[in-house]
Amino acid sequence: MLHAQFHLCLQPTRVQEWIVRQTDRSGNAIIGVKEHKTAARQVAAFALSQEEECWFDIYFTRMRPQLLNSKKRKRDDSDDEEERFFISTTGRPIYNASNDLDRLHSKYKLKPVTSRVARRVFETATGTMTDTEKSLVADYLTHSTATAEKHYRMKQPETIVRASQLLAKLAGDSSVESADEGRSHGTRGAARNAADKPACTTNVQMDVQAAFDKLLETHPVTLDGDVPDKTERRKVSPDCQRQLYERWLKAQMKLRVQHVLSYFCRRLPTENRVSTWIAKRGWKKNLPISANIIKEWKPSGSVDMVMDSRHIQKMTISQRWRGLLVTDVKGKGKGVVATRRFQTGEVVCDYHGRVITAKEGHHIHKNTSEEETGHMFFYTNQKGQPMCIDAHSSFCECHPEKQTVGRFINHAKAGANLRPRFYAVDTDGEEKEVILFLATRNIEVNEELLFN
After folding, report:
1. pLDDT number for residue 436
2. What is the distance between the terminal CA atoms of the chain, rounded to a whole angstrom?
3. What's the Rg (C-alpha) of the chain?
4. In Å, what is the CA distance from 276 to each residue of 280, 281, 298?
5. 59-84 pLDDT, tens digit each
6. What's the rounded mean pLDDT across residues 10-19?
7. pLDDT value at residue 137
8. Which residue would you say has higher pLDDT here, 268 or 109?
9. Nearest Cα residue to 22 out of 43, 59, 56, 53
10. What domains, with CATH codes, occur in the chain?
11. Which backbone phi and psi does 440 adopt, to 5 degrees?
12. Taking the CB of residue 268, how many other CB atoms lie within 10 A of it?
């Protein structure tokens, strides 16, 4: 309990700090907490076991969104609440977890334990450790201004995890093995009694899986379904009903994340766009986190099926392609550069204009100035007919007040980072021909877009 309380004192105070956490080979999560007066340097770095990370993740994915939507929360609150990791029941940020720990101690009539007391107890308990181990524990416990410089250097995951394991041993966690097996520490706490362990442990994971499979027979995981209530779960397994609850929610979360990613399968959306789309699904609980969706996103699915994405269809209709800037390029006139990073296979934009026959296109080409004739794209459709997308006019018929971006992308035989791809999409019973530009490799910010 003392160990867990100590972790809470070093809470990740910002959402971003939780999102960018690292994971070492053994599955421990490493969290870095910054000093937010300057927000420039890392004051503390600490490790969470898989179980502890699970506690925080359940809070972050299930409880926190509900707290942010609390009826007690004032509508004119600043965006700081959205950035703070811990939120109170009123939907406001928790700036000091110590006050909440004090209330917890009072409620259960426990002796108050401050972070200062915890550090002193742990440091005293290192009496029989080696100097190296003592130093690791001291550095891990320290996050004061006076010794911050020393702590900043403690960034190696293996060092942080090792220090965390030493603390766990001092706190009496017998599940943590010593790096020097056979060495006995006089300060090791009593091992947990096996009778105190929950009924469903890693020793009986097969039983939990069997119970979960049985639960799915009557309560399959669906996008819009509700988790089976406690009564239904207890009918399947009285001992493991809590594990069944968590597994069902985790499976639904995975299903929902995949559902969101499949919608935005070929074009990286903005975080706000994902949040809006998720809100329209009508899900009340177990909501995917938009920031996590963005972090996990990458182009998916067959290139042949790109135009099956309703997101891409809407983009070709609205012409609201983002991450692109029309600018002057030395020696070329106008061109397009990327204002964000594009991944290989991602749809960058389309070549938009009036679809006409190639014969009409050649006629326009002959009667148009040389500067404007560069804005015409000749191709052969799936029926073998020679066609042309006429974009020589600054504004197209369907977007009379908007200059489309694709027409400004320059040609290049060497160094091209885009490839044009023909698609035909059925829109309300009418077939529409579309030319999309797909990234042939990763494209960096400020890089000019070119197609062969």
Report:
1. 95
2. 63
3. 29
4. 6, 9, 20
5. 877 787 777 776 565 544 444 445 77
6. 64
7. 75
8. 268
9. 53
10. 2-192 (no CATH), 202-297 (no CATH), 304-451 (2.170.270.10)
11. -85, -10
12. 19
Which amino acid belongs to residue 300? S
Q: How far apart are CA 351 and CA 340, in angstroms?
A: 19
The number of beta carbons lying within 10 Å of the beta carbon of residue 445 is 11
Residue with tokens 């690292």: 22
Name the one residue in this structure whose structure tokens are 């006995």. 184
Total-model pTM: 0.53
Instruction: Answer for the pair 219, 259: CB distance below 8 angstroms, yes or no.
Output: no
Question: From CA 426, how far away is CA 38, in angstroms rounded?
Answer: 54
pLDDT at 295 over 70: yes
Query: Which residue carries 């692109």 as its tokens?
Result: 324
Structure tokens given for 61: 């994915």
Confidence of residue 336 (pLDDT cuts 50, 70, 90): very high
Which tokens go with 305?
């099926």
Residue 87 has pLDDT above 50, yes or no: yes
pLDDT tens digits along 199-241: 434 444 568 888 999 999 999 999 999 999 999 999 998 888 8
Which are the contacts of 207, defined by CB distance < 8 A and separation ≥ 6? Answer: 200, 237, 240
* 3 state SS for the chain: CHHHHHHHHCCCCEHHHHHCCEECCCCCEEEEEECCCCCCCEEEEEEECHHHHHHHHHHHHHHHHHHHCCCCCCCCCCCHHHHECCECCCCCECCCHHHHHHHHHHHCCCCCCCHHHHHHHHHHCCCCCCHHHHHHHHHHHCCCCCCHHHHHCCCCHHHHHHHHHHHHHHCCCCCCCCCCCCCCCCCCCCCCCHHHCCCCCHHHHHHHHHHHHHHHHHCCCCCCCCCCCHHHHHHHCCCCHHHHHHHHHHHHHHHHHHHHHHHCCCCCCCHHHHHHHHHHCCCCCCCCCHHHHHHHCCCCCCHHHHHHCHHHHHHHHHCCCCCEEEEEECCCEEEEEECCCECCCCEEEECCCEEEEHHHHHHHHHCCCHHHHCCEEEEECCCCCEEEEECCCCCCCCCCCCCCCHHHCEECCCCCCEEEEEEEEEECCEEEEEEEEEECCCECCCCECEEC
Q: Which two tokens stand for residue 37?
A: 């007066």
The answer to whether residue 40 scores a pLDDT higher than 80 is no
Q: Are 342 and 442 in contact (CB under 8 A)?
A: yes
- Retrieve residue 274's tokens: 């994902």
Nearest one of 445, 419, 424 to 434, comparing CA atoms: 424
Antiparallel, parallel or unpaired: β 354-357 and 410-411 = unpaired
